[in-house]
Amino acid sequence: MKSKLFGSSGVRRIVNVDLTPILACRIGLAIATFSKAEKAVIARDTRVSGLMLENALVSGLLAAGVDVNCLRIVPTPALAYLTKRLGADVGVMITASHNPPEYNGLKIFNKDGIAYDERSQDKIEKIIENEHYVLADWHKIHETSYINEDQIYIEMIEKAAKLDKKWHVVVDAGCGATYNFAPMIFNRLGCKVTAINAQPDGLFPARSPEPNRESLNSLAQIVQKLKADIGIAYDGDGDRTAFIDEKGNFVNFDRILAAYAAHIVKKGEFMVTNVETSMCVEKMVEKHGGKVIRTKVGDVYIAEAIKKHKAVFGGEPCGAWIHPQFHYCPDGILSSVMLLKVLEKENLDLSEFIAKTPKYETLRTNIACKNEMKHKVVEKLGEDLKTAFPVYKEYSSIDGVRLAFEDGWILARASGTEPLVRLTVEGESLKVAKEIMKKGVRLLKKIIGETKD
Ligand code: MG
To answer: What does pLDDT average to over the chain?
Structure first.
């Protein structure tokens, strides 16, 4: 089976191994052919290969007669927001998000600043496969413009949440695309800012571009040493954010999402999250009269569902939060500023704010399963789980199979790239989680043993 070029977050590959400038040029041609764009906005994160890929992508777009505007290095949400605000037909971000430095990728946004869905990406892939590019007449080829419209994006965030308290914020851009935007915005909001890893460096020498407990160890120590109010970190392209509380503790992604969502969602309103998120989100949101909608994993699905259900908020437990009243791209800086505003309103420290959110136990395991079989096996597992747990509350097959109970849930998904089935279980206690997992693994192994490829 030929591997697909586009995943749920666009193209993401190792540079000059399977993402070459030749491919980037073809993608540029295919985007122009598919979208019939007259105007495109392009940006990149701080990766070493960014400029090389940008030049190739722009070449493809220019060859198809597109008027190309380059923003240089800006966060992904800034590119998405400016695509709409500047009236472009398409926006392309050159980034591999939180992946290691040898990776790069391309994420495409439509004129509304929403990431391309699977259907559009498949059409682009088809154009590349068939080499059906529409090239412009030689006299219709434009020049590239390098523009700076940062101000439009910065003003949107400044207006979103005016802060009254002089917060001491330690900002960790991780040498990624938020390196200048984030410290500048917090300064303009009147915060006392300590910025670390605030130099653009595509080798990401300070920490992994993926913010997590491990990679934010230094940030946590600095917050504690300086007695700062909060530590805020971003991933390589600035659509995700992670927090350190005032005591220097890493803040659990699911619990902060649940606490924040519970504050935002009012009675009768919807919030959207993916199938992997902790059930603490339901516990918190439903307590306030709101309802949780679950989607496949990937911010494009969250954005689509927000639009469809007119939800007021959406987020994934990797720290990608969407505020649809501003735009439909997850936005790390916007999310962190909005969180500060909520803490201010509630007059709480971050550790107090999440204290009311229940803590559950999560277990994960991978079971080997041939690629040809894995989807069939997961489907069968769904049926067998329903028999094994007759008291289940909810069953869903939107992304793998997921069975929810009063005190926990189990999710089985076929790995996108490896010969594995991934099982995730959550329980109110470790005992409950272990019991669910034990049953799940036993059923799964039995099905794998019985299934012929
Ligand atoms: Mg990202």
So the answer is: 96
Residues 21 and 125 placed together within one structural domain of the fold: yes
- Helix/strand/coil (H/E/C) assignment for every residue in 229-280: CEEEEECCCCCEEEEECCCCCECCHHHHHHHHHHHHCCCCCEEEEECCCCCH
Q: Which range marks the domain in which residue 373 is found?
A: 361-452
- The domain that holds 24 is classified in CATH as 3.40.120.10
List the shell of residues around ion ligand 1, using CB closer than 5 Å: 97, 235, 237, 239
Q: Are strands 313-316 and 270-274 parallel, antiparallel or unpaired?
A: parallel
With a cut of 50, say whether residue 1 has pLDDT above it.
no
Q: Give the three-state DSSP class for 427.
A: strand
pLDDT tier at 416, thresholds 50, 70, 90: confident
210, 244: one domain: yes
Compute, in angstroms, the gap from residue 95 CA to the centroid of ligand 1.
8
Same structural domain, 219 and 112: no
User: 152 pLDDT band (50/70/90 cuts)?
Assistant: very high
In sequence order, which residues have a C-beta less than 8 Å from that of residue 450 and are 6 or more positions away? none
Q: Catalytic amino acids? A: 97
pTM of the entire predicted model: 0.94
The reply to whether 43 and 16 lie within a common domain is yes
**61 C-alpha to center of ligand 1: Å?**
24
What pLDDT is recorded for position 452?
Answer: 66
Residue 71 and residue 203: Cα distance in Å, rounded? Answer: 21
Within-domain flag for 435? yes
